[in-house]
Task: inverse folding
Protein backbone atom coordinates (compact mmCIF):
# COMPACT_ATOMS: atom_id res chain seq x y z
CA UNK A 1 0.00 0.00 0.00
CA UNK A 2 1.44 3.37 -0.98
CA UNK A 3 1.58 6.26 1.43
CA UNK A 4 -1.17 8.03 -0.54
CA UNK A 5 -3.43 4.96 -0.30
CA UNK A 6 -2.66 4.72 3.41
CA UNK A 7 -3.61 8.33 4.00
CA UNK A 8 -6.78 8.12 1.90
CA UNK A 9 -7.90 4.89 3.56
CA UNK A 10 -7.38 6.30 7.03
CA UNK A 11 -9.46 9.36 6.15
CA UNK A 12 -12.29 7.56 4.40
CA UNK A 13 -14.71 8.14 7.33
CA UNK A 14 -13.99 11.89 7.14
CA UNK A 15 -14.75 12.03 3.43
CA UNK A 16 -18.01 13.67 2.40
CA UNK A 17 -19.09 11.71 -0.63
CA UNK A 18 -20.64 14.53 -2.62
CA UNK A 19 -18.41 17.43 -3.75
CA UNK A 20 -19.33 20.92 -2.70
CA UNK A 21 -21.62 22.67 -5.15
CA UNK A 22 -21.86 26.43 -5.00
CA UNK A 23 -24.15 28.75 -6.88
CA UNK A 24 -22.23 31.29 -8.96
CA UNK A 25 -24.04 34.06 -7.09
CA UNK A 26 -22.27 33.03 -3.87
CA UNK A 27 -19.03 34.45 -5.25
CA UNK A 28 -20.57 37.92 -5.48
CA UNK A 29 -21.94 38.00 -1.94
CA UNK A 30 -20.65 38.50 1.61
CA UNK A 31 -20.01 34.77 2.00
CA UNK A 32 -18.16 33.41 5.04
CA UNK A 33 -17.00 30.10 3.53
CA UNK A 34 -13.20 30.27 3.41
CA UNK A 35 -13.14 28.53 0.03
CA UNK A 36 -15.48 31.06 -1.55
CA UNK A 37 -13.40 33.89 -0.08
CA UNK A 38 -10.22 32.29 -1.43
CA UNK A 39 -11.68 32.17 -4.96
CA UNK A 40 -12.91 35.75 -4.58
CA UNK A 41 -9.38 36.86 -3.67
CA UNK A 42 -7.75 35.00 -6.55
CA UNK A 43 -10.14 36.12 -9.27
CA UNK A 44 -10.27 39.73 -8.07
CA UNK A 45 -6.49 40.03 -7.76
CA UNK A 46 -5.98 38.49 -11.20
CA UNK A 47 -8.25 41.17 -12.68
CA UNK A 48 -6.08 43.80 -11.01
CA UNK A 49 -3.00 42.00 -12.34
CA UNK A 50 -4.34 42.35 -15.88
CA UNK A 51 -4.98 46.07 -15.29
CA UNK A 52 -1.50 46.54 -13.87
CA UNK A 53 -0.07 44.65 -16.83
CA UNK A 54 -1.81 46.96 -19.28
CA UNK A 55 -0.31 49.95 -17.46
CA UNK A 56 3.12 48.30 -17.65
CA UNK A 57 2.80 47.82 -21.41
CA UNK A 58 1.82 51.47 -21.79
CA UNK A 59 4.96 52.44 -19.87
CA UNK A 60 7.10 50.14 -22.00
CA UNK A 61 5.54 51.51 -25.19
CA UNK A 62 6.65 54.99 -24.20
CA UNK A 63 10.13 53.68 -23.40
CA UNK A 64 10.50 51.94 -26.76
CA UNK A 65 12.00 55.17 -28.15
CA UNK A 66 14.11 57.86 -26.42
CA UNK A 67 11.66 60.68 -27.12
CA UNK A 68 8.33 61.47 -25.46
CA UNK A 69 6.08 60.31 -28.28
CA UNK A 70 3.32 58.12 -26.82
CA UNK A 71 2.17 59.73 -23.56
CA UNK A 72 3.15 62.97 -21.86
CA UNK A 73 5.64 63.07 -19.01
CA UNK A 74 2.86 63.67 -16.48
CA UNK A 75 0.79 60.75 -17.73
CA UNK A 76 3.90 58.56 -17.77
CA UNK A 77 4.51 59.34 -14.10
CA UNK A 78 0.92 58.40 -13.26
CA UNK A 79 1.13 55.16 -15.25
CA UNK A 80 4.17 53.76 -13.46
CA UNK A 81 2.84 54.98 -10.09
CA UNK A 82 -0.39 53.03 -10.51
CA UNK A 83 1.41 50.07 -12.08
CA UNK A 84 3.70 49.61 -9.08
CA UNK A 85 0.93 50.18 -6.54
CA UNK A 86 -1.49 47.76 -8.21
CA UNK A 87 1.05 44.99 -8.75
CA UNK A 88 2.25 45.06 -5.15
CA UNK A 89 -0.81 45.91 -3.08
CA UNK A 90 -3.64 44.62 -5.30
CA UNK A 91 -2.06 41.57 -6.92
CA UNK A 92 0.83 39.76 -5.26
CA UNK A 93 0.06 40.48 -1.58
CA UNK A 94 -3.68 39.58 -1.71
CA UNK A 95 -3.04 36.64 -4.08
CA UNK A 96 -1.03 34.96 -1.32
CA UNK A 97 -3.90 35.68 1.06
CA UNK A 98 -6.28 34.05 -1.43
CA UNK A 99 -4.34 30.79 -1.45
CA UNK A 100 -4.03 30.96 2.32
CA UNK A 101 -7.78 31.37 2.73
CA UNK A 102 -8.57 28.45 0.49
CA UNK A 103 -5.90 26.02 1.69
CA UNK A 104 -5.04 26.64 5.35
CA UNK A 105 -8.25 25.22 6.92
CA UNK A 106 -8.13 22.22 4.57
CA UNK A 107 -4.45 21.57 5.26
CA UNK A 108 -4.86 21.60 9.05
CA UNK A 109 -8.17 19.69 9.08
CA UNK A 110 -10.40 22.60 10.12
CA UNK A 111 -13.87 23.36 8.82
CA UNK A 112 -13.27 27.10 8.34
CA UNK A 113 -11.10 29.99 9.44
CA UNK A 114 -11.17 31.12 13.07
CA UNK A 115 -13.13 34.32 12.30
CA UNK A 116 -15.24 33.78 9.17
CA UNK A 117 -17.01 37.16 9.18
CA UNK A 118 -13.74 39.00 9.73
CA UNK A 119 -12.36 36.97 6.85
CA UNK A 120 -15.14 38.11 4.52
CA UNK A 121 -14.72 41.72 5.66
CA UNK A 122 -10.99 41.58 4.90
CA UNK A 123 -11.78 40.65 1.29
CA UNK A 124 -14.59 43.14 0.72
CA UNK A 125 -12.32 46.00 1.70
CA UNK A 126 -10.16 45.30 -1.36
CA UNK A 127 -12.48 45.91 -4.37
CA UNK A 128 -13.53 49.45 -3.36
CA UNK A 129 -9.92 50.33 -2.50
CA UNK A 130 -8.76 49.17 -5.92
CA UNK A 131 -11.57 50.94 -7.74
CA UNK A 132 -10.79 54.14 -5.87
CA UNK A 133 -7.16 53.98 -7.00
CA UNK A 134 -8.04 53.27 -10.64
CA UNK A 135 -10.73 55.96 -10.67
CA UNK A 136 -8.10 58.51 -9.66
CA UNK A 137 -6.48 57.95 -13.05
CA UNK A 138 -9.52 59.57 -14.64
CA UNK A 139 -9.55 62.60 -12.33
CA UNK A 140 -6.23 63.50 -10.76
CA UNK A 141 -3.95 60.48 -10.81
CA UNK A 142 -1.12 60.18 -8.24
CA UNK A 143 2.24 60.64 -9.93
CA UNK A 144 4.85 60.50 -7.16
CA UNK A 145 5.75 56.83 -7.69
CA UNK A 146 4.61 53.86 -5.63
CA UNK A 147 6.96 55.02 -2.84
CA UNK A 148 5.40 58.51 -2.75
CA UNK A 149 8.47 60.23 -1.31
CA UNK A 150 8.01 63.73 0.06
CA UNK A 151 8.53 66.52 -0.83
CA UNK A 152 7.53 65.32 -4.34
CA UNK A 153 4.30 63.77 -3.06
CA UNK A 154 3.42 67.05 -1.33
CA UNK A 155 3.65 69.07 -4.55
CA UNK A 156 1.38 66.91 -6.74
CA UNK A 157 -2.41 66.91 -7.02
CA UNK A 158 -4.14 66.60 -3.67
CA UNK A 159 -7.04 64.49 -4.94
CA UNK A 160 -4.93 61.81 -6.57
CA UNK A 161 -2.40 61.64 -3.76
CA UNK A 162 -5.15 61.51 -1.14
CA UNK A 163 -6.83 58.67 -3.05
CA UNK A 164 -3.49 56.80 -3.10
CA UNK A 165 -3.05 57.22 0.66
CA UNK A 166 -6.62 56.19 1.46
CA UNK A 167 -6.36 53.16 -0.84
CA UNK A 168 -3.22 51.91 0.93
CA UNK A 169 -4.76 52.48 4.36
CA UNK A 170 -7.72 50.31 3.36
CA UNK A 171 -5.50 47.60 1.92
CA UNK A 172 -3.31 47.67 5.01
CA UNK A 173 -6.37 47.19 7.20
CA UNK A 174 -7.37 44.20 5.10
CA UNK A 175 -3.89 42.70 5.46
CA UNK A 176 -3.93 43.09 9.25
CA UNK A 177 -7.35 41.44 9.58
CA UNK A 178 -6.27 38.56 7.37
CA UNK A 179 -2.96 38.05 9.18
CA UNK A 180 -4.67 37.94 12.58
CA UNK A 181 -7.11 35.36 11.26
CA UNK A 182 -4.36 33.16 9.81
CA UNK A 183 -2.29 33.14 12.99
CA UNK A 184 -5.22 32.21 15.24
CA UNK A 185 -6.40 29.56 12.78
CA UNK A 186 -2.98 27.91 12.51
CA UNK A 187 -2.29 28.04 16.23
CA UNK A 188 -5.71 26.98 17.55
CA UNK A 189 -7.61 25.03 14.91
CA UNK A 190 -5.30 22.22 13.82
CA UNK A 191 -6.92 18.82 13.85
CA UNK A 192 -6.18 16.98 17.13
CA UNK A 193 -2.83 15.25 16.91
CA UNK A 194 -1.31 17.58 14.31
CA UNK A 195 1.79 19.17 15.79
CA UNK A 196 3.50 22.15 14.23
CA UNK A 197 6.11 19.77 12.79
CA UNK A 198 3.38 17.88 10.93
CA UNK A 199 1.98 20.94 9.18
CA UNK A 200 2.60 21.43 5.47
CA UNK A 201 5.25 24.05 4.81
CA UNK A 202 2.67 26.33 3.22
CA UNK A 203 1.18 26.72 6.72
CA UNK A 204 4.60 27.63 8.13
CA UNK A 205 5.07 30.22 5.40
CA UNK A 206 1.67 31.79 5.98
CA UNK A 207 2.35 31.94 9.73
CA UNK A 208 5.68 33.72 9.12
CA UNK A 209 4.03 36.06 6.62
CA UNK A 210 1.23 36.91 9.04
CA UNK A 211 3.68 37.71 11.83
CA UNK A 212 5.53 40.06 9.49
CA UNK A 213 2.29 41.75 8.43
CA UNK A 214 1.17 42.35 12.02
CA UNK A 215 4.56 43.79 12.97
CA UNK A 216 5.16 46.14 10.04
CA UNK A 217 1.84 47.18 8.48
CA UNK A 218 0.83 49.49 11.37
CA UNK A 219 4.05 51.44 10.76
CA UNK A 220 3.04 51.99 7.13
CA UNK A 221 -0.41 53.12 8.27
CA UNK A 222 1.16 55.58 10.69
CA UNK A 223 3.48 57.17 8.13
CA UNK A 224 0.67 57.45 5.57
CA UNK A 225 -1.54 59.23 8.10
CA UNK A 226 1.28 61.70 8.84
CA UNK A 227 1.79 62.23 5.09
CA UNK A 228 -1.94 62.90 4.73
CA UNK A 229 -1.72 65.54 7.47
CA UNK A 230 1.15 67.22 5.62
CA UNK A 231 -0.79 67.09 2.36
CA UNK A 232 -4.22 68.16 3.60
CA UNK A 233 -3.71 70.01 6.88
CA UNK A 234 -0.45 71.79 6.21
CA UNK A 235 1.57 70.14 8.95
CA UNK A 236 5.34 69.80 8.51
CA UNK A 237 6.24 66.25 9.51
CA UNK A 238 8.07 65.55 6.24
CA UNK A 239 8.06 68.92 4.48
CA UNK A 240 11.61 70.35 4.55
CA UNK A 241 10.39 73.88 3.88
CA UNK A 242 8.85 73.92 7.37
CA UNK A 243 11.55 72.01 9.19
CA UNK A 244 10.21 68.54 8.44
CA UNK A 245 12.48 65.60 7.65
CA UNK A 246 11.67 63.60 4.49
CA UNK A 247 14.30 60.98 5.43
CA UNK A 248 12.14 59.99 8.42
CA UNK A 249 9.39 59.15 5.94
CA UNK A 250 11.81 56.88 4.08
CA UNK A 251 12.73 55.04 7.28
CA UNK A 252 9.10 54.45 8.24
CA UNK A 253 8.02 53.60 4.70
CA UNK A 254 10.80 51.05 4.12
CA UNK A 255 10.34 49.51 7.56
CA UNK A 256 7.17 48.09 6.00
CA UNK A 257 8.01 48.06 2.33
CA UNK A 258 11.13 45.94 2.43
CA UNK A 259 9.44 43.29 4.61
CA UNK A 260 6.63 43.57 2.04
CA UNK A 261 8.97 41.80 -0.37
CA UNK A 262 8.96 38.81 1.97
CA UNK A 263 5.22 39.20 2.57
CA UNK A 264 4.88 38.75 -1.20
CA UNK A 265 7.32 35.86 -1.58
CA UNK A 266 7.02 33.79 1.63
CA UNK A 267 3.59 32.24 0.84
CA UNK A 268 4.95 30.96 -2.45
CA UNK A 269 8.09 29.60 -0.81
CA UNK A 270 5.70 27.33 1.06
CA UNK A 271 3.66 26.52 -2.04
CA UNK A 272 6.79 25.63 -4.03
CA UNK A 273 7.96 23.30 -1.24
CA UNK A 274 4.66 21.41 -1.44
CA UNK A 275 4.57 21.33 -5.25
CA UNK A 276 8.16 20.13 -5.73
CA UNK A 277 7.80 17.34 -3.19
CA UNK A 278 4.53 16.09 -4.69
CA UNK A 279 5.66 16.13 -8.30
CA UNK A 280 9.12 14.71 -7.69
CA UNK A 281 7.64 11.93 -5.50
CA UNK A 282 10.27 12.47 -2.82
CA UNK A 283 10.23 13.55 0.82
CA UNK A 284 11.13 17.21 1.12
CA UNK A 285 14.80 17.53 2.02
CA UNK A 286 15.35 19.21 5.40
CA UNK A 287 11.74 19.83 6.47
CA UNK A 288 12.57 21.51 9.79
CA UNK A 289 15.35 23.62 8.29
CA UNK A 290 12.96 24.91 5.63
CA UNK A 291 10.22 25.54 8.19
CA UNK A 292 12.39 27.52 10.58
CA UNK A 293 14.08 29.38 7.74
CA UNK A 294 10.69 30.99 7.08
CA UNK A 295 10.62 32.30 10.64
CA UNK A 296 14.23 33.48 10.27
CA UNK A 297 13.32 35.41 7.11
CA UNK A 298 10.37 36.94 8.94
CA UNK A 299 12.63 38.14 11.76
CA UNK A 300 15.57 39.30 9.62
CA UNK A 301 13.18 41.06 7.23
CA UNK A 302 12.53 43.69 9.90
CA UNK A 303 16.19 44.75 10.24
CA UNK A 304 17.26 45.30 6.64
CA UNK A 305 15.10 48.23 5.53
CA UNK A 306 17.76 50.95 5.38
CA UNK A 307 19.69 49.32 2.54
CA UNK A 308 17.23 51.25 0.37
CA UNK A 309 18.72 54.43 1.82
CA UNK A 310 22.48 54.03 1.33
CA UNK A 311 22.44 57.23 -0.76
CA UNK A 312 20.25 59.20 1.69
CA UNK A 313 23.01 60.44 3.96
CA UNK A 314 23.01 57.29 6.10
CA UNK A 315 26.03 57.23 8.49
CA UNK A 316 28.79 54.79 7.62
CA UNK A 317 28.38 52.63 10.74
CA UNK A 318 24.65 52.26 9.98
CA UNK A 319 25.40 51.36 6.38
CA UNK A 320 27.66 48.56 7.58
CA UNK A 321 24.98 47.18 9.92
CA UNK A 322 22.31 47.07 7.22
CA UNK A 323 24.73 45.71 4.62
CA UNK A 324 25.57 42.79 6.93
CA UNK A 325 21.95 42.03 7.88
CA UNK A 326 20.87 42.20 4.23
CA UNK A 327 23.54 39.68 3.28
CA UNK A 328 22.68 37.42 6.22
CA UNK A 329 19.05 37.13 5.09
CA UNK A 330 20.29 35.30 2.00
CA UNK A 331 21.26 32.36 4.27
CA UNK A 332 17.73 31.17 5.18
CA UNK A 333 16.69 31.85 1.60
CA UNK A 334 19.59 29.71 0.39
CA UNK A 335 18.46 26.91 2.71
CA UNK A 336 15.19 26.78 0.81
CA UNK A 337 16.90 26.83 -2.59
CA UNK A 338 19.19 23.92 -1.69
CA UNK A 339 16.28 22.00 -0.16
CA UNK A 340 14.30 22.29 -3.38
CA UNK A 341 17.28 21.24 -5.51
CA UNK A 342 18.02 18.28 -3.23
CA UNK A 343 14.38 17.24 -3.41
CA UNK A 344 14.38 17.39 -7.20
CA UNK A 345 17.68 15.52 -7.45
CA UNK A 346 16.98 11.88 -8.24
CA UNK A 347 13.22 12.31 -8.02
CA UNK A 348 10.65 10.76 -10.32
CA UNK A 349 9.78 14.08 -11.91
CA UNK A 350 6.35 14.60 -13.45
CA UNK A 351 7.08 17.47 -15.82
CA UNK A 352 3.59 18.94 -15.80
CA UNK A 353 2.74 22.63 -15.80
CA UNK A 354 2.84 22.97 -12.00
CA UNK A 355 6.36 21.54 -11.71
CA UNK A 356 7.64 23.46 -14.74
CA UNK A 357 6.45 26.73 -13.21
CA UNK A 358 7.94 25.68 -9.85
CA UNK A 359 11.35 24.95 -11.40
CA UNK A 360 11.17 28.23 -13.33
CA UNK A 361 10.45 29.94 -10.03
CA UNK A 362 13.62 28.48 -8.50
CA UNK A 363 15.83 29.55 -11.40
CA UNK A 364 14.45 33.06 -11.75
CA UNK A 365 14.41 33.71 -8.01
CA UNK A 366 18.06 32.68 -7.78
CA UNK A 367 18.90 35.43 -10.30
CA UNK A 368 16.94 37.94 -8.22
CA UNK A 369 18.63 36.71 -5.06
CA UNK A 370 22.13 37.01 -6.50
CA UNK A 371 21.52 40.59 -7.64
CA UNK A 372 20.02 41.23 -4.20
CA UNK A 373 23.29 40.27 -2.55
CA UNK A 374 25.08 42.54 -5.04
CA UNK A 375 23.00 45.61 -4.17
CA UNK A 376 23.38 44.82 -0.47
CA UNK A 377 27.04 45.85 -0.83
CA UNK A 378 27.28 49.60 -0.20
CA UNK A 379 29.79 50.47 -2.96
CA UNK A 380 27.88 48.60 -5.65
CA UNK A 381 24.51 49.91 -4.49
CA UNK A 382 25.72 53.51 -4.65
CA UNK A 383 26.77 52.88 -8.25
CA UNK A 384 23.48 51.34 -9.43
CA UNK A 385 21.02 53.11 -7.10
CA UNK A 386 17.98 54.46 -8.96
CA UNK A 387 19.05 52.76 -12.19
CA UNK A 388 17.41 50.00 -14.19
CA UNK A 389 19.58 47.44 -12.41
CA UNK A 390 17.26 47.89 -9.42
CA UNK A 391 14.22 47.52 -11.68
CA UNK A 392 15.63 44.24 -13.02
CA UNK A 393 16.42 42.96 -9.53
CA UNK A 394 12.99 43.61 -8.06
CA UNK A 395 11.19 42.12 -11.07
CA UNK A 396 13.23 38.92 -10.97
CA UNK A 397 12.27 38.62 -7.30
CA UNK A 398 8.60 39.53 -7.65
CA UNK A 399 7.73 38.39 -11.17
CA UNK A 400 10.32 35.62 -11.48
CA UNK A 401 9.50 34.67 -7.90
CA UNK A 402 6.02 35.55 -6.73
CA UNK A 403 4.14 35.54 -10.05
CA UNK A 404 5.66 32.26 -11.24
CA UNK A 405 4.85 30.89 -7.77
CA UNK A 406 1.24 32.00 -8.16
CA UNK A 407 0.99 30.23 -11.51
CA UNK A 408 2.60 27.06 -10.11
CA UNK A 409 0.11 27.07 -7.23
CA UNK A 410 -2.85 27.58 -9.57
CA UNK A 411 -1.86 24.65 -11.79
CA UNK A 412 -1.28 22.46 -8.72
CA UNK A 413 -4.44 23.27 -6.74
CA UNK A 414 -6.83 24.04 -9.62
CA UNK A 415 -8.13 20.41 -9.57
CA UNK A 416 -8.93 20.74 -5.87
CA UNK A 417 -10.66 24.10 -6.29
CA UNK A 418 -12.76 23.18 -9.32
CA UNK A 419 -12.82 19.38 -9.53
CA UNK A 420 -11.40 19.58 -13.06
CA UNK A 421 -7.98 19.37 -14.66
CA UNK A 422 -6.33 22.15 -16.61
CA UNK A 423 -5.16 21.36 -20.14
CA UNK A 424 -1.49 20.41 -19.90
CA UNK A 425 -0.53 21.38 -23.46
CA UNK A 426 -1.74 24.94 -23.05
CA UNK A 427 -0.29 25.05 -19.58
CA UNK A 428 3.15 24.30 -21.01
CA UNK A 429 2.63 26.88 -23.75
CA UNK A 430 1.77 29.40 -21.05
CA UNK A 431 4.91 28.47 -19.09
CA UNK A 432 7.18 28.76 -22.14
CA UNK A 433 5.79 32.14 -23.22
CA UNK A 434 6.00 33.50 -19.68
CA UNK A 435 9.57 32.27 -19.20
CA UNK A 436 10.82 33.75 -22.47
CA UNK A 437 8.88 36.99 -22.02
CA UNK A 438 10.15 37.42 -18.46
CA UNK A 439 13.79 37.10 -19.44
CA UNK A 440 13.45 39.17 -22.60
CA UNK A 441 11.81 41.98 -20.60
CA UNK A 442 14.00 42.15 -17.52
CA UNK A 443 17.40 40.62 -18.34
CA UNK A 444 18.50 43.58 -20.55
CA UNK A 445 17.65 45.96 -17.70
CA UNK A 446 20.73 44.73 -15.82
CA UNK A 447 22.89 46.05 -18.64
CA UNK A 448 20.90 49.28 -18.85
CA UNK A 449 21.50 49.89 -15.16
CA UNK A 450 25.20 49.17 -15.36
CA UNK A 451 25.41 51.60 -18.28
CA UNK A 452 23.78 54.29 -16.13
CA UNK A 453 20.18 54.55 -17.36
CA UNK A 454 18.03 56.05 -14.61
CA UNK A 455 14.63 54.60 -13.83
CA UNK A 456 11.35 56.57 -13.61
CA UNK A 457 12.13 58.73 -16.64
CA UNK A 458 10.39 58.81 -20.01
CA UNK A 459 13.32 60.29 -21.97
CA UNK A 460 16.77 58.78 -22.15
CA UNK A 461 20.03 58.80 -24.09
CA UNK A 462 19.65 57.25 -27.57
CA UNK A 463 22.45 54.76 -26.80
CA UNK A 464 19.96 52.86 -24.62
CA UNK A 465 17.35 52.50 -27.36
CA UNK A 466 18.17 49.00 -28.64
CA UNK A 467 18.01 47.39 -25.20
CA UNK A 468 14.81 49.25 -24.37
CA UNK A 469 13.30 47.98 -27.60
CA UNK A 470 14.06 44.39 -26.50
CA UNK A 471 12.47 45.07 -23.09
CA UNK A 472 9.34 46.44 -24.74
CA UNK A 473 9.01 43.42 -27.05
CA UNK A 474 9.38 41.15 -24.03
CA UNK A 475 6.63 43.02 -22.19
CA UNK A 476 4.31 42.46 -25.17
CA UNK A 477 5.15 38.74 -25.08
CA UNK A 478 4.31 38.64 -21.37
CA UNK A 479 0.96 40.21 -22.18
CA UNK A 480 0.31 37.58 -24.86
CA UNK A 481 1.29 34.79 -22.45
CA UNK A 482 -1.72 35.48 -20.23
CA UNK A 483 -4.24 34.64 -22.97
CA UNK A 484 -3.56 30.86 -23.09
CA UNK A 485 -3.87 30.79 -19.31
CA UNK A 486 -7.16 32.73 -19.18
CA UNK A 487 -8.74 30.63 -21.94
CA UNK A 488 -7.43 27.40 -20.42
CA UNK A 489 -8.69 28.27 -16.93
CA UNK A 490 -12.19 29.26 -18.06
CA UNK A 491 -12.60 26.34 -20.48
CA UNK A 492 -11.24 23.77 -18.02
CA UNK A 493 -13.39 25.08 -15.17
CA UNK A 494 -16.46 24.50 -17.32
CA UNK A 495 -15.57 21.49 -19.48
CA UNK A 496 -12.25 20.06 -18.29
CA UNK A 497 -11.87 16.37 -17.44
CA UNK A 498 -12.90 15.38 -13.92
CA UNK A 499 -9.95 15.44 -11.56
CA UNK A 500 -11.01 13.06 -8.82
CA UNK A 501 -10.28 13.77 -5.17
CA UNK A 502 -6.50 13.32 -5.29
CA UNK A 503 -5.13 13.42 -8.86
CA UNK A 504 -1.51 13.94 -7.68
CA UNK A 505 -1.51 11.15 -5.03
CA UNK A 506 -0.56 13.80 -2.49
CA UNK A 507 -0.43 13.23 1.26
CA UNK A 508 -1.56 16.53 2.78
CA UNK A 509 -5.07 16.78 4.18
CA UNK A 510 -6.56 19.11 1.56
CA UNK A 511 -6.48 16.15 -0.83
CA UNK A 512 -8.36 13.92 1.64
CA UNK A 513 -11.71 15.50 0.82
CA UNK A 514 -13.77 15.90 -2.32
CA UNK A 515 -12.84 18.12 -5.25
CA UNK A 516 -14.15 20.76 -4.87
CA UNK A 517 -14.45 20.36 -1.09
CA UNK A 518 -17.85 20.27 0.59
CA UNK A 519 -18.98 23.37 2.43
CA UNK A 520 -17.70 22.10 5.80
CA UNK A 521 -14.69 20.33 4.23
CA UNK A 522 -14.84 17.05 6.18
CA UNK A 523 -17.58 14.79 7.52
CA UNK A 524 -15.42 14.05 10.56
CA UNK A 525 -12.17 15.57 11.73
CA UNK A 526 -9.41 14.06 9.54
CA UNK A 527 -6.42 12.16 10.87
CA UNK A 528 -2.75 11.91 9.97
CA UNK A 529 -1.75 8.41 8.93
CA UNK A 530 1.47 9.59 7.33
CA UNK A 531 3.65 12.68 7.21
CA UNK A 532 2.92 15.43 4.68
CA UNK A 533 6.02 14.60 2.60
CA UNK A 534 6.60 10.88 3.27
CA UNK A 535 6.67 9.85 -0.39
CA UNK A 536 8.39 6.51 -0.86
CA UNK A 537 8.86 5.97 2.88
CA UNK A 538 8.62 2.33 3.89
CA UNK A 539 5.93 1.24 6.34
CA UNK A 540 6.55 -1.12 9.23
CA UNK A 541 2.89 -2.03 9.05
CA UNK A 542 0.79 -1.13 6.04
CA UNK A 543 -2.40 -2.63 7.46
CA UNK A 544 -4.79 0.15 8.36
CA UNK A 545 -7.69 -0.54 10.66
CA UNK A 546 -10.36 1.85 9.41
CA UNK A 547 -13.03 2.26 12.11
CA UNK A 548 -16.68 2.47 11.35
CA UNK A 549 -18.41 5.81 11.79
CA UNK A 550 -19.51 4.91 15.33
CA UNK A 551 -16.14 3.49 16.41
CA UNK A 552 -13.15 5.41 17.67
CA UNK A 553 -10.28 2.91 17.42
CA UNK A 554 -6.73 3.99 16.68
CA UNK A 555 -5.49 4.10 13.13
CA UNK A 556 -2.63 1.59 12.77
CA UNK A 557 -0.13 3.29 10.55
CA UNK A 558 3.60 3.36 10.29
CA UNK A 559 6.05 6.09 10.98
CA UNK A 560 6.37 8.93 13.49
CA UNK A 561 3.48 10.82 11.94
CA UNK A 562 0.88 8.30 13.06
CA UNK A 563 -1.78 9.67 15.39
CA UNK A 564 -4.97 8.46 16.96
CA UNK A 565 -8.27 9.18 15.29
CA UNK A 566 -9.77 12.32 16.75
CA UNK A 567 -13.08 12.35 18.50
CA UNK A 568 -15.93 13.81 16.43
CA UNK A 569 -16.59 17.49 16.88
CA UNK A 570 -19.45 17.75 19.40
CA UNK A 571 -20.50 21.08 17.95
CA UNK A 572 -21.27 19.56 14.54
CA UNK A 573 -24.34 17.47 13.87
CA UNK A 574 -23.67 13.80 13.12
CA UNK A 575 -25.86 13.88 10.04
CA UNK A 576 -24.58 16.31 7.36
CA UNK A 577 -28.17 17.01 6.32
CA UNK A 578 -28.91 18.38 9.83
CA UNK A 579 -26.21 21.03 9.54
CA UNK A 580 -26.94 24.58 8.61
Result:
Amino acid sequence: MTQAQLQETANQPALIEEPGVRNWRDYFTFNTDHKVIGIQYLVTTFVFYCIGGVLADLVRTELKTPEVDFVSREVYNSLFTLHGTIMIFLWVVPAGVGFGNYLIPLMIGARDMAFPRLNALAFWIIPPAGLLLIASLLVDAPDAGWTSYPPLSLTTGQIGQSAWIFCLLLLGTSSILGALNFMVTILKMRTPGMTVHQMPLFCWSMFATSALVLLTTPVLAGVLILLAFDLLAGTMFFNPTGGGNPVVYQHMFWFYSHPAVYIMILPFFGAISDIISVHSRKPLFGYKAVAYSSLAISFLGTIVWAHHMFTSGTPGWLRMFFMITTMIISVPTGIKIFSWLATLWGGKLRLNSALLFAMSFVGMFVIGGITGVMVAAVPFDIHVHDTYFIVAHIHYVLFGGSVLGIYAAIYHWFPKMTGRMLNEFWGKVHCALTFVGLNLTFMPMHALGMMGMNRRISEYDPKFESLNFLCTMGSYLLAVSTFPFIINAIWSWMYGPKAGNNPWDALTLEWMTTSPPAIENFDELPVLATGPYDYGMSNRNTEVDVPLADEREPVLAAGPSSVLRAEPDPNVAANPEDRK
